[in-house]
Amino acid sequence: MRGISRRDFLTVVGAAGGAGAMFATMGALGLAPTAMGTADYRPPQPSDFRLTGRAAAKVVVLGGGIAGLASAYELGKAGYDCTVLEARDVAGGRNFTVRGGTRQTELDGQTQVGRFSDGEYMNAGPARIAQWMVTLDYCRELGIPIEVFTNTNASALIYHEGMGAPVRYRTAKADVYGYVSELLAKATDQGALDSSLTGDDKQRLLAFLEDWGDIGAQHRYTGSKRRGYAVDPGAFDQAGTPLPGPPSLSDVLARGVGRHFSFEFEYEQAMLMFQPVGGMDRIPAALVRAIGPGRVRTGCAVTGITNGDNGVSVTYTRGGREQRIDADYCIAAMPPHIAARIPHNLGADVRQALTTFDVHPVGKMGLEYRSRWWETDHRIYGGITETDLDLDHLWYPSHGYHGRRGTLIGYYNTDAHAVAYGQLTPAQREARAVAQGVRIHGDKYRTELASSFSVAWHRIPHIEGGWALPTTDNIPAYVLLNQPQGRVYFAGDWLTFLVTWQAGAFDSARRVVTELHSRVLKS
Amino acid sequence: MRGISRRDFLTVVGAAGGAGAMFATMGALGLAPTAMGTADYRPPQPSDFRLTGRAAAKVVVLGGGIAGLASAYELGKAGYDCTVLEARDVAGGRNFTVRGGTRQTELDGQTQVGRFSDGEYMNAGPARIAQWMVTLDYCRELGIPIEVFTNTNASALIYHEGMGAPVRYRTAKADVYGYVSELLAKATDQGALDSSLTGDDKQRLLAFLEDWGDIGAQHRYTGSKRRGYAVDPGAFDQAGTPLPGPPSLSDVLARGVGRHFSFEFEYEQAMLMFQPVGGMDRIPAALVRAIGPGRVRTGCAVTGITNGDNGVSVTYTRGGREQRIDADYCIAAMPPHIAARIPHNLGADVRQALTTFDVHPVGKMGLEYRSRWWETDHRIYGGITETDLDLDHLWYPSHGYHGRRGTLIGYYNTDAHAVAYGQLTPAQREARAVAQGVRIHGDKYRTELASSFSVAWHRIPHIEGGWALPTTDNIPAYVLLNQPQGRVYFAGDWLTFLVTWQAGAFDSARRVVTELHSRVLKS
């Protein structure tokens, strides 16, 4: 979801909002970009075969994550005979919701069993869906109810080392925007921007700043009702007791709280955002149902892919026994670094290309509490508290408001922080996360805790990473793997401009399905 | 809710976050402010009477809006014998949810009957609850499930006359914040703010602006991915097709889109906000149930209040017949301009004081559609579109996502705009609102419409106004009516610093209940 490396990739490859380096690179490789957007997608249909005399083919899909399931689901609409082989004991891939009874063994053999109460869960992988993302179309099509995911909350907190007490977003924002307004109004008043601003511009800018920064006509920021109150406004003479402050301009800048503000402007992160009611795994569960009984086989680890002139042959183990499946086509919807280890005859270029993605460690922990103290004590109903602690982000739940219990995301971290937590035992991870949380929220963070579950994605068998990013160096690999290799197609968020997002997996699946179906119709 | 007059009141009376003029005024009147905040509220309890030998009294409550119902509910906790007289045929007051079958006759006799489908509704009065408001405590206490109210949405629109096409919030914000950053960075770079900023300050400010305005290290705003896309990023080579733009700095300032940004910073309006699942009237319905059978009498219009040494006598009509109720105390929880018309013996000062509040016309219309085209065609899942048309605000529903039908708030307007719509017939109001909406959303705004319902609060019998505001001129009246007049207490949002908010009604009720109970215990 979030990571500077991904932004770097998008910035460099899709410079200035899109066209840039990627198209140039592809032009140099002799590939013209297709113009298909999500809006243009047309699922394969049985009637497509009516005039051609062709028939739907047999397809083996390797990997039952979202890209694999969506591929089988879409092809199934036209009657393709699809089989999905999933190595783990549950479909969904990183779309993984932990509940009471969920069992997860890490690479080193340590096993956790979820002890969450009924109705409590954590979305260990994807957890939020932007309004524009195709993921929502699948929720609608599959009849999965959705609700708001609370990605931003004015009442949530910012906590940096050395800050003493955390500060609410609303307070931090009022102060930063207030001082920004004061400074820009001052510069404008003084004529410092006369070369950039007409007289009308200046008048309009000042009117905007007075309102937006709550600095009034005197152009000085001296605090604002927007900061919040120590005692809220109420009846009769309760005008509201202001919070202490504001701090000085220098202090506000030194605290660096403003660096958290741009998150909410990101195209992928801006509210409103959504989640399926009941857990993100409602999506793979619905896809598996729609694909049909017996077609999604779990516990099947692929051991070999052989591409031939007339078909593809895939070997896999199930329950310790080697098995084989033959098909007309294959969609390899596994993480690239996992696919890279599987013997195949697709050539050295493909083998090499699969190793070029930048795989990141990612960790997440769910903390179930016996009470919803963040609501009752702190009036925080959802949202995210940002920190510079190694827990990175702390999420409050977007469902179950006013319920008896609730589950926080106690950490959601990447790279060095994810590695640090991942190498601990689950009990040690909990202790570390709770010790950090206590600094922000006090003792209840420890005393009200009921149970926890942690997922270190880089330590989960058959996944081994939070996400695999294209880089500025592997554009030829990205382009190569986005083309069919004989009868084998690759699919996954790692082959899209929505890398790290479930929507990328869906979009990749749609693209592969479109190309495969077109080929079948012409074959 | 919203209204410039209310802000004026708070600004002047509660200057600089609270204390200011109001306390000064009250000091001059010899009244010291009490220190009770909402957090300190303690409901009356049966055990309170154990040591005093006193007993719970009989209380008649005039008005079954939220202030009246909450008063009876809280007093009932200690066994007070409460009767609520409500003039309308439904309790809740302005907390009024219109569904299929809801019937409403206006002052001039014109009647509407709701034709909304099952599950569709409009909250004609209060519709949103901030996290800090006591209203949420009542939802928790009464077991009313809540969900996010979508008060802000980056994908919602801003539409001004002469704009041509509407612009999304995300796009407008990216442009305004981008140019603000560029201008302030330029002034900072040029040394124009050296008298206000240390070297460290400058460095920190520039780092903030680069990120926050997405202007990068070159300090020029040339657009941003935050603006959104014509074609979204997707698979393989779909880097995303940028929207045209950005407009020039002068054009952005001239459009005036930035004036809508500060709404989301307001203490009462900042997300996250909430609503009861199923309609705001879940609250009065739950209060009525908790108060107990027979205690809330609808269709009872009060005709007289007589305060005596040992009790209060209230006359009212029910079904055309005059009736009388005697009680130890009375809580008059009616709008002040309605109470002002009822004969009473509380004196000329009270009579006069009740007429000093500033009563505002307010209108709201629900538009039910046969499809949720705002979701499917425009990817707008909730939120508010702001306009300078006479519809003022256009709300998308915060529930029923992906359902078959949905209900917009087609206008939510005040003062002159509310008067203009209010004087039309319901059919004319619909035609006018739809014609305006078509300018923003095109023909589906008309062709998909199923039915509408409009509420002109200033034309609703026994309410006759959207809200009644204290003003800078009526502080003595506000203070007077916040004191018991003999055995009569006044209650309502109009007697609080949360005027126009349901939370104000609750807070006023709590205050009156606390005072009345304390008096009974001492009597």
List the helices and strands and how they pair.
Two copies of one chain form a homodimer.
Chain A: H1 4-13, H2 20-28, E1 58-62, H3 66-76, E2 81-85, E3 97-98, E4 103-105, E5 111-113, E6 122-123, E7 129-130, H4 134-142, E8 146-149, E9 157-159, E10 167-168, H5 169-189, H6 199-212, E11 229-231, E12 241-242, H7 249-255, E13 273-276, H8 282-291, E14 296-297, E15 300-307, E16 312-318, E17 321-327, E18 329-332, H9 336-339, H10 348-353, E19 358-360, E20 362-369, H11 373-376, E21 383-387, E22 393-396, E23 406-414, H12 415-422, H13 426-441, H14 444-447, E24 449-456, E25 467-469, H15 475-481, E26 488-490, H16 502-522
Parallel strand pairs in A: 1-2, 1-18, 2-14, 9-21, 18-26
Antiparallel strand pairs in A: 3-6, 4-5, 7-13, 8-13, 9-10, 11-12, 15-16, 16-17, 19-25, 20-23, 20-24, 21-22
Helix pairs in contact in A: 3-8, 3-16, 5-6
Query: What overall form of chain A do the CA principal axes indicate?
Result: globular
E-strand count of chain A: 26
Classify the helix fraction of chain A into a percent range.
Answer: 25-40%
Give the distance, in angstroms, between the N- and C-terminal Cα atoms of chain A: 39 Å
By secondary-structure content and strand pairing, the structural class of chain A works out as alpha+beta
Protein chain pair with the most extensive contact, residues per chain: A-B, 115 and 115 residues
Largest sheet data of chain A: 5 strands, parallel
Strand order, biggest sheet of chain A?
A: 14-2-1-18-26
pLDDT averaged over residues of chain A: 93
Regarding quaternary structure, what we see is: homodimer
The low-pLDDT segments of chain A are 1-37
The radius of gyration computed from the alpha-carbon positions of chain A, rounded to a whole number of angstroms, is: 26 Å
